[in-house]
Amino acid sequence: MSDHQHDHDDLSQEVQSELERLAECLGQLHDPASGLPLDDLDAEIEVGFVDDTVYVGVTLGYPCASQEADWRKRAEDSCQPLLKAGPLKGCALQFELFSHIPSTPAPGAPEPLAGVKNIVAVASGKGGVGKSTTAVNLALALAAEGARVGLLDADIYGPSLPTMLGTEGERPHVKEQKFFVPVMAHGIETISLGYLMTEDTPAVWRGPMASGALNQILSQTLWGDGRDGLDYLVVDMPPGTGDIQLTLAQKTTLAGAVIVTTPQDLALKDAIKGIEMFRKVSVPVLGIVENMALHTCSNCGHSESIFGAGGGERIAAEYDTHLLGELPLAQKIRADVDSGQPSVISDPNGEIAGFYCEIARKTAAQIWLNSGMDDDMPEIEIS
Ligand SMILES: Nc1ncnc2c1ncn2[C@@H]1O[C@H](COP(=O)(O)OP(=O)(O)OP(=O)(O)O)[C@@H](O)[C@H]1O
């Protein structure tokens, strides 16, 4: 072996071990959506080196398109000392963020819906707390972060999605005389009983009979048709914790539930009932969204907790779940859904859209964490 070749081998080994140190630094980066370092997550860190450029790819298990610049900055900061001295001195860094969204494993559970990786229920213990508004914006925020998303309006008492999405009067196409093809709205696939009801639909249809229609919709909708399926199907549940809700939670293989509440005492007590209902049927509670938490005066900008503060956080801690986010009581949130242009669409870079996107990332990160729990299980081979 010539001296020159020997030097070269030494250098590449040095580079190799420096790249390993760099990967270790990256592993300590904090993932804001789960609150954990990458090392504690099922994240993938890839490091490559070509022509004095270090290539770094980080793959997370939830959609996070809006966060790429933030991750790049933090990755650069953490790698900087290794690019300033030593064998990688002067090298450039190229960073890319990817997401690979896993399906919820459901051992022993009924068959998940065809074409759907994860089903997320948005529920509330009582009516009128903003469950539908949250479900619509959450679905759109997941899509804005890069996921393929569907939204099912299961609120049989008052399907409000067509109004909130601006799809009133639309009818889903029927394929092969059997399957409903979802109605597209702002880039997501949607199905609502509202699409099947007319002004003449009798009131009785909206109660027990609607629940039969819902079962049919659940089993006969072609989600993700013609593409690669859906990453998430968000289900706007009927309000309350009665039999219909329980059956729905048991019938569908849920990745988890998001509980929407307001800070009023009564709503919080109802939120606890919601948490307990899902736990009873072994559905993970992904967290709580506290809606109408703060009121910001449109004149002076002063913020006040008119319904009391900190309730969502208290319940989250007490019931060992997460506070996914708090939303202000804002006239804009109401006006946007009333006009069929939810805030995530009407003002995608605004503060309110930012709140919903953060809630979406945290919700999806919890689903990812839960799916990783299966890693500890022994692999069972059935032959
Ligand atoms: N953060 C908010 N700020 C202001 N208005 C809101 C907010 N969230 C929801 N609203 C408004 O409150 C009303 C009730 O909201 P929504 O229909 O989403 O509640 P819900 O819990 O789904 O009700 P239901 O039980 O009737 O299905 C709507 O008019 C909506 O626009």
From TrEMBL:
> Which Pfam family name is an example for this entry?
ParA
Q: Which UniProt keywords apply?
A: ATP-binding, Hydrolase, Iron, Iron-sulfur, Metal-binding, Nucleotide-binding
Gene Ontology cellular component list: cytosol
Q: Which SUPFAM superfamilies match?
A: P-loop containing nucleoside triphosphate hydrolases
Q: List the NCBIfam families.
A: PRK11670.1
Q: What does this protein do?
A: Binds and transfers iron-sulfur (Fe-S) clusters to target apoproteins. Can hydrolyze ATP.
Outline the subunit composition. Homodimer.
As for family, the record states:
Belongs to the Mrp/NBP35 ATP-binding proteins family.
Instruction: Please report the name of this protein according to its UniProt entry.
Output: Iron-sulfur cluster carrier protein
Source organism per UniProt: Microbulbifer okhotskensis
